[in-house]
Amino acid sequence: MDRKIISLCHRISRPVCVFLLFLVGVHHLQAQEKFIFTPQWTAQAQFAGYYVAQEKGFYKEAGLNVEIVHPSPTQPAMKRIQNKESHATTLQLCQAIEIVDEGIDLVNILQTSMNNSMVIVSRRGVDPLTQKGERIGIWSAGFGQLAICMNKKEHLDYEWIPFASNVNLFVAGAIDATLAMSYNEYYQLVQTGLPVNEKSVYRFCDHGYNVQEDGLYVTREYYNKHREEAKKFAQASRRGWEWAAAHPDETLDIVMKYVQENHIITNRTLQKLMLEEVLRLQVDRESGKREFRLRPDMVKRASDLMLESKMLKREVTYDQLIAK
């Protein structure tokens, strides 16, 4: 604090001093540069830990003035990052590797996912690996890099049919099977009442494709200039996720607040299932712990698969991605 303010406080009454210190605090808060976080998708329990960190004041306690701005069709998260309108975003590991290969230098400052959530669900009650050459739904917004690798490696010759954000094509019978996240579209399918059994579900994590998904990323340029802010944001975000795991009911209340404020069509049951599954996926299969770290072996696995499928021009390594 400014020594002149401290000296002045010694010479004036206590109430006036308290008010003066309050004004200084307000001015300091207003002077803080905003840290803008944009997750890669619309408001949902997938990002619960960040909402918790905001609502419980963890970011503020870390000295950060954080604003959470969700993406839009015209302003996707990475576009905001490239335009320096946002400072951090979440990305699946395969997405981050692809973006780095394209020349955008990214740094992983926190890893939340320890396991892969992607599945293929067949509408015919058969193993999706038997559906060679058939029509399979894939997200038009991305997220399907690992599935493209698997398709080539297993010689399945799927015909990829893009969909926006829901299971309508699958429900309507326009496609034979669809990609889904085990915490999102999979539960949407279950809620439609369509028969979904394990025989018709291919889980990537069980077949040699257990590649980590969501992590927290900033550009290397931002990290080099604002290392302390990035570290504080990562630490407070981890604290938010740990609180969410310990208080799932209160966390769900917070998630529903963000869902409603952002006018997302969903329901509490779906968000509860999503939260439970996202938290489960954060626990490493081998250690049984919520580790919050990017695993070098999974970076290597993802990069090798994408190189083999000619999705990359060069190998992207763990050392390139990790914050130091």
Explain what you see:
By secondary structure, this protein is α/β, with parallel strands linked by helices. The protein has 15 helices and ten strands. It is globular. It starts with a helix and ends with a helix.
Looking at this protein, list some descriptive labels.
324 residues, alpha/beta, D-Maltodextrin-Binding Protein, domain 2, 2 domains, 5-stranded mixed β-sheet, 15 helices, globular
CATH class of the largest domain: Alpha Beta
Give the strand order, joined by hyphens, for the main sheet. 2-1-3-10-4
CATH architecture of the largest domain: 3-Layer(aba) Sandwich
CATH superfamily of the largest domain: Periplasmic binding protein-like II
Strand content: 5-15%
Layout of helices and strands, plus pairs?
Layout: H1 3-9, H2 14-31, E1 34-38, H3 48-55, H4 58-61, E2 65-68, H5 77-82, E3 88-91, H6 93-101, E4 106-111, E5 118-122, E6 135-139, H7 145-153, E7 159-163, H8 168-172, E8 177-181, H9 185-192, E9 201-203, E10 215-219, H10 220-225, H11 227-246, H12 248-261, H13 268-281, H14 296-308, H15 318-321
Parallel strand pairs: 1-2, 1-3, 6-7, 6-8
Antiparallel strand pairs: 3-10, 4-10, 5-8, 5-9
Summarize it.
It contains 15 helices and 10 strands. It is α/β, with parallel strands linked by helices.
